[in-house]
Amino acid sequence: MEGFAAAQVFGSVILVGVCILFTKLCDAMWVKPRRIRSTLWRQGIRGPKPSFLYGNIQEMKNIQSVLVNDQASQPAVSHNTWVKSIFPYLHLWAQKYGSIYMYSTGNKQHLYIGQPELLKELNLHKSLDLGKPTYLSKSMESMLGDGIIRANGPYWAYQRKLIAPEFFLHKAKHMLGLMEESVIAMIRTWLSQVEINGGVADITVDKDLKRVSADIISKACFGNSYSQGKQIFAKLEVLQGVMSKPSILFGLANFRFLPTESNRKMWTLQKEIETLILDVVKARIEEVQSSSKSRKDLLETLLESATNSEDHLHTRDADRFIVDNCKNIYFAGHETTALTASWSLMLLALYPEWQERIRAEIFDICGDDRDCFQDLDKLRQLKSLTMVIQETLRLYGPAIITSREAFADLRVGDLTVPKGTIIWISVMALHRDPENWGPDADEFKPERFAGGVAEACKYPQSYIPFGFGSRLCVGQTFAMLELKILLRSILSNFSFSLSPEYRHSPVYKMLLAPQHGIRLLARRLQRENVMTQT
């Protein structure tokens, strides 16, 4: 009898467990999604009809496959025809349902927002109840861990408070020298290639600019050079390629725990990258202990925070905190700047009149003064160069889409956004909206920024190359200074045109990247027109 009673109790426990599990599954797969969709529906928001369990996944795949088959007929160089090939379902649904609509991927409910007025409201929302989607943090753990890019809540706020000051202007301006030092080495290499090839060299500029940008961020933040950290950058680039899938970005069927070939590759790369970063950290600790130098970079700031018992990090692994933020800075700190510089040179090759305009401005402001390249005040005077960078960020900004998750019911303007809703904003669509930018929105016209962003468009808050709201990129000032140093130094020595081998094919690789590289023909300027730094 005792055995029978025990069996009954055990059976009851199992039954209760099954009931609890079933209730949780129903809540996650049916109740919560239905609540979100019902709330949005009552406010007049529509979208494609989802199927049970899969949502709109199959429709997204169908739209993507149709558009891929149509890409062969696209013109060689165009600033708008390629846009709809990246997340084409978002563009198609916007045409059908308007600038605000909802859709589903499995049990995840997404709200697409393309209205500048609502974006203004989101910009003003500083609460920690609006953050990065939690499922993305899990999916991109191999690449970014729980660093500043993907963290949420108080832990994100703590990281921002710690890291942001390292990129403020008063610190960034002291890095102008090392920025110049890094770009000079590349310029010397290019000059040698031009000379060897009889005055014109076919250069894949994005590869070299990645190395230069990586060298700058390594020296500025970690106290070492690109050559010391090149394995980290190489492995991060491979990992970036593995993870550049819409299935990860939009939370489609994402079996990240299964030992698939792709997942095994990610796990291996993650482990190798973290080991290499810890080697850099170990070397820095030894250097600090044996040196009396007064300079303190970002890595030392992270080390101090991780070992400070007064900080709230005692609940987290110190090595994990350092590694995660190093991965974030290594990735975001060099990739975005290098891509922007590369797209800028491509556009300047297409529009040589802007090359001449920038060059004339450089010579007018700097003359024969080589120290001008490290003068922050003169750097600010390069208005034409600034306009070109801003227009490049509008048409070919590295971040082409951004997202937020509502961790509580939120009020955004007249719209109620239910808890659990994932908000998506297409930066490409906002930056090309003719109602905001005018009928020439798809054209390269840097002069639109002559009066600054405030006068460039109807809704300045919809210009978001560095993000928006409280999650604005902490390295924005540093990036703009680096871009000006890079482009000014390059354009003072070379003129560019498109290589016959250049194939214009922007693609999504976590950022907007040139699928086949950016190949340009470089010519050295005549000596009398050159302010060479070599």
UniProtKB/TrEMBL annotation:
Q: Where in the cell is it found?
A: Membrane
**Residue ranges crossing the lipid bilayer per the database entry:** 6-26
Q: Which InterPro entries match?
A: Cyt_P450, Cyt_P450_CS, Cyt_P450_E_grp-I, Cyt_P450_sf, Cytochrome_P450_Monooxygen
Keywords per UniProt? Heme, Iron, Membrane, Metal-binding, Monooxygenase, Oxidoreductase, Transmembrane, Transmembrane helix
**Family annotation (PROSITE patterns):** CYTOCHROME_P450
The membrane topology noted for this protein in its Swiss-Prot or TrEMBL record is: Single-pass membrane protein
- Give start-end of the signal peptide: none
- Tell me which Pfam families the record gives: p450
For this chain, the family text in UniProt reads: Belongs to the cytochrome P450 family.
Q: What is this protein called?
A: Cytochrome P450
Q: Which organism is it from?
A: Hevea brasiliensis (Para rubber tree)
